[in-house]
Amino acid sequence: MASDVLGGRWTMMLLAELLRGTSRFNDLRRGLPRMSPALLSKRLKELEAAGLVSRLQSAEAADLHEYALTEAGFAVEPIVDAMGEWGHRWVKTEAGLEHLDARLLMWNLRRNLNPNPMPARRSVIQFVYRDLSVEMRNWWLLVQPGNDIDLCSVDPGYDVDLYITTDLRTMTEVWMGYVPAHRALEEGRLVLVGDRKLESTFQMWLGSSGYASLEKCVA
């Protein structure tokens, strides 16, 4: 029965996103960009029927809803963490890098960014993925004082403080802890241009995947 509830395609990924605090349908879509809206809606209804998720009216508007984990939903966290740790340790690096997605990577960068080492003002960081199509090449992170962080795929119109030029694989490798940022910089696979403080504290505010510190058991 547990396998029936948790074993559906994308179910564990959806629970992982909910455990990270995502509660709105559109934000869940951004965290799961390869999951169709129809399947997302179906999985949410299934989890609600199974007692893992509650659908609540948003405090912001009467026609908006949010999703919250129940006690049973939160109890799945050790299982999600164990799957993530197993995957990082035992799934081959090349296999893990076969299906890269800039939308998913940037959503995670936004979520885990640490603004504390950054200047006490608005900082605009533009990521330029030179290997992607024009539509997916440019992304912006807007970091405001007070931990207000926005992700934009359209130019927000502000002066850019730091340009980060790289390719999607390199940025994913740095994020996942497969390649140290300093090595990517030395090899020219990662180029930073702009504010000196943002450059010097890059690894501090960028952060990394929660599994990056785990030792891989396969190459």
Explain how this protein is built.
- The protein has 219 residues and is an alpha+beta fold.
- It has two domains: 2-90, Arc Repressor Mutant, subunit A (Orthogonal Bundle), CATH 1.10.10.10; 100-206, Nonspecific Lipid-transfer Protein, Chain A, CATH 3.30.1050.10.
- It is built from 13 helices and seven strands.
- The chain has helices spanning 2-6, 11-19, 25-31, 37-49, 71-74, 77-90, 93-96, 102-112, 134-137, 168-176, 181-186, 196-200, 202-206, and strands at 53-57, 65-69, 123-129, 138-144, 148-152, 162-166, 191-194.
- The strands form two sheets. A five-stranded mixed sheet has the order 5-4-3-6-7.
- β1 and β2 (65-69) form a beta hairpin.
- The longest helix is centred in the middle third of the chain and has 14 residues, at 77-90.
- It is globular, with a radius of gyration of 19 Å.
- 19% of the residues are buried.
- The mean pLDDT is 91.
Helical region count?
Answer: 13
- The overall number of domains is 2
Question: Which CATH class of the largest domain?
Answer: Alpha Beta
- Derived from helix and strand composition plus strand pairing, the structural class reads alpha+beta
The CATH homologous superfamily of the largest domain is termed SCP2 sterol-binding domain
End-to-end distance: 35 Å
Low-confidence stretches: none
Residues in helix, %:
40-55%
Percent of residues in beta strands? 15-25%
Taking all residues together, what is the mean pLDDT? 91
Shape: globular
The CATH architecture of the largest domain is 2-Layer Sandwich
Written as H for each helix and E for each strand, in order along the chain, the element string is HHHHEEHHHHEHEEEHHEHH
